[in-house]
Amino acid sequence: MRLPFTLLSWAVAILLTLPRVPGLSRENAELRLALTQRQLDIAQLREALRHAHQAAALAQEFTATPGIVAMVIGRSLLPTQQTLLLNRGARDGLAQGAVAVHVAGVVGRLTDLSPSTALVVLLTDPDSRVSGLIERSRETGLLVGRGLGQCELIYLNADADAQEGDRVLTAGLGGSFPKGLLLGVITRVIRDESTGSAWAQVNPAAQLGRVEEVLCLPHSAP
Amino acid sequence: MTLFLGCLLAHLALVSIVASPWLTPNLTLIGMVLTVSRLPQRWSLCAVTAGLVAMAWSVRVPALAFFSYLAAGAICRAASAQWDLHDRRVQSVVTGLAGALLLVTALWLEGIWSVGLLAAGMVQVAVTVLALHVVRRLPQPARGAP
User: Fold this and answer.
1) A215 is a domain residue
2) What is the pLDDT of residues A59-107, one digit of tens each?
């Protein structure tokens, strides 16, 4: 007995829907557009949230020193010159020689400034020179960039207490870099008995090819 | 010029994505070679634009980046005058030569010469020549179009 009623109700429902059919495709297109817009909004909000988290993490990591958070807006087209372009410049209070750090470690040093941008020379650039200190043994050396994604800690004695996995920090010598910032981790130690010297390959702590935000510490930071 | 500017912008985007600069093909150079093959008279405009953009990133010998690209542009122009620069083999040779010129002058004049950097640079030149063939296959503006 219920089947005819069911069929009848379906037929009525279809008849009631038919006048709306021409507008359905337009409505569907509008909904798809609205959905795409919402998805874009969500993506932008997620990106803003991630940026805020990164900035908060940087600020928390370096609470003692006032700094300016800057975003990386470009990388060098020249592979021999490993630099980053930041979206902050002299107008924002940045100065030449300021140190760019990431939550993971030191990124490099600001060299060229314009009113609204700054150029950072990365640790891996062949011109980069930072006095380094092995955290465990307190041996000091000079961390130099080699242009190939790694650095070398040179001027170590042949019997220097350095081994794979040792963390290298800034030594603070020369005053350019504040003492105690993480530079990288030793991946290999090479000793030359004939010259009485040794050097170590160091992997930068910050993934320099993937840094998106940096904190710029003033040159004279403690 | 649309092709050249597209390649330049793609190059700027690509260096931000690829972790190692040595594995990034020099799309600016590719754009210059392809543009000069179509419009040889535009070589100086391409070379000057590429040189000025490269200079913006330079922290050592900024003039070097500019004049290197100018020399690379002159190589493209000379090649287009002597040979058929539409030929993919000629384009490959010119891209390789210009890429090697950019590399050697940078290593030599910046004073950072080393075997490791030379090897990495040769890898980049090879990647650039390979990328040339990929870019050639992409839809491009009609020949003679500005």
Assistant:
1) no
2) 776 666 678 889 998 888 888 888 888 999 989 888 888 899 988 889 9
B35/A126 Cα distance (integer angstroms): 33
pLDDT digits (tens, 9 = 90+) for B123-142: 999 999 999 988 888 776 65
Q: What span, in angstroms and rounded, lies between the C-alpha atoms of A146 and B68? A: 22
Inspect the interface and report whether the beta carbons of A80 and B112 lie closer than 8 Å. Answer: yes
Contact yes or no for A201/A149 (Cβ under 8 A): no
User: Which pLDDT value is given to residue A221?
Assistant: 45
Distance, CA of B93 to CA of B96 (rounded, Å):
5
Q: Are residues A120 and A133 in the same domain?
A: no
Last residue of a domain, one of A124, A141, A171: A124
Please write the tens of the pLDDT for every residue from A171-214.
888 777 888 888 999 999 998 888 888 999 999 998 888 888 89
**Of the listed ranges A25-34, A127-136, A213-222, the one predicted with least confidence:** A213-222
Residues of B with CB under 8 A from a CB of A: 11-12, 15-16, 18-22, 24, 26, 28, 53-54, 57-60, 65, 103, 106-107, 110, 112, 114, 116-117, 120-121, 124
Residue A63 lies inside a defined structural domain of this protein: no
Q: Is residue A52 domain-shared with residue A74, that is, in the same domain?
A: no
Query: Can you tell me the distance from the alpha carbon of B63 to that of A83, in angstroms, rounded to the nearest whole number?
Result: 17
CATH code of the domain containing A90: 2.40.10.340
Q: Which domain holds residue A32?
A: 2-56
Is there a single domain that holds both residue A45 and residue A72? no
Indicate if A108 and A95 belong to the same structural domain.
yes
Alpha-carbon gap, residue A186 to A172, rounded angstroms:
19
A168 and A141 within one domain: yes
